[in-house]
Structures are given as structure tokens and as C-alpha cells.
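Milestone M4 deliverable, item 7.
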Amino acid sequence: MDIKQLNHLIAICETGSFTRAAKRLSLAQPALSQSIKKLEQELGVTLIGRSQGMNDKGIKLTAEGQVLLEHARRIVNQLGQAKAQIQAMADLRQGEVRVAVPGMLGSFYLPSRLMAFRHRYGGLKLSLFEGGTRDALRMLEQEEVDIAIITAKDLTPALDSCLLLTEEMMVAMSHEHPLSDKSSITIEEFFDHELVIFKPGYFHREWLLSQARELGIAPTIAFETNLINLIKQVVSQGFAITSVLDMVISAKDEIEKRPFYPRVFLDLHIAWKKKRPLGQADKAFVEFLLANK
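Output delivered:
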């Protein structure tokens, strides 16, 4: 049984005639009759009762033919819907982009680009999942998202990726903080002060704690939060210092920022699973971000 045979059955029933059905389908009538005969032989039943041989008079579906007709109409309709949806996705008129991003990028880098992408591709749905690097990698592995923005150090042989941007890690402090007088800050000087950092699962936290372990330092963590605005408030009021990407601190924040010495840069990649090639919507999103860094 194939879709052509089902279309043949539908056409015969809708026109009430082998002759008219053959004309609609642009087939010779013997070919149409043979198609239905093969279908009946495959199923082992009679589908169309022909009281007067193979002419057009007396065509009537058997009980089995009526059941198959109902299924055939549903199948053909669903196939048509599937073709239309796939074509819409191919034309970027329909589809969904599911992407996991670090909190800082989700709040400060992506918003304007997401709006611009949505303006260009109004039919596409954007599903953004904001969280730590560990969450992003887990969601990518479990295929809860199709794309994740992760650090270069988190890339594995199972992933394909493109470099999105390189951003400097900065030390953020209040205007009155003693470190604000320095042009750059060593990691040892950083750890001399109380810190506000992200909770477990974030690359920034993991990097900072790994640096502390290498130096044999036990950092003083005064606050733990994933809320960037809260981190900024804690820092601006002088309760603690932190390290964030350069993009996070702007002039309106009334927060000082200084580079580390030696300077520290973070490569951020757009990544996806090799065994799950990107769909058209995902490709369009990756290409858009790379073109609008």
C-alpha cells in the first residue's frame, strides 16, 4: 500500500467514476483499475463492488473499502499538512530556535540581537533558556535545546561550534573601594577581598575557585546569587567585589571595573551536537549571530 493507491481510491470515491477519476489523476483508466486491483490483492479484500464489471455503473465501496477510505483521507490530509509545515520551515516562515545561554549573555548581549532576528524572521519562535554552563551542557546533551553558547573549555569532540565572541573578564567594585585606585588587579589582590559570585554551575564561579585552589587561597565568599542586578547592587554599595564579563558593567551602573593582571579573556562559542544537524531555523539563527557580533 502506498500514498498513490490511497489517492486513487479517494479520487474514485469523490468522482464516483473510474473514468472521471482517471481523468483527474491524468492516468489511463486501465492503469487506475490495475492500481486498485493490486491494492485489493495486497489487503486480501474487495474494496469496490462492481455490479456490472469494470464500467462506471454500480460503483460502491464495501465495508472494508469504506474503512480504508476514512483512513486514506486522514493519511493524505496529514501528509499534506506535513509537507506544508516542512516547506514553511524550509522557507523560515515557521519553526523554533531553542538556545541555552549564560546569564550574562542572555541579559546584556543577546536582547537586541534577538529582537532584530525576530523582526527579520517573524514566523520563527525563539525559546531562550538562561542558566549556568553546566545547565546549558546538560540541556544540549539531553536535546532540550538545539544550540548552546558555552566557553571554549567546555567544547568536546561530540560538538560542532563556531566562535561567537571573545570577552574580557573584569573585576567590578564600588567607586570607594581600595582597588579602584589600581589600573589592573592581580588574582591574588582580588582574593584579598570579600566576594559576591554566582552559585555552582556557572563558569565564572568554577574559574575563580580553580584559580584560588591553584594559589592555595580560601576565598571569602560573602554572597552567592545568580541575579546579576543583585550582584551589581552588592558591588555598587561596597559590600563585596566580583568578576563579570566586560559587557555587564556600563557607565550608568556607577561601578568601577578593572582588568585582571595578567588580562583574562573568555572565548564563547555557539555549539550544537554533531549527531543532530541543525535545522533551517537554527542555521538561520547561528548565521545571524555570526553576522551581527
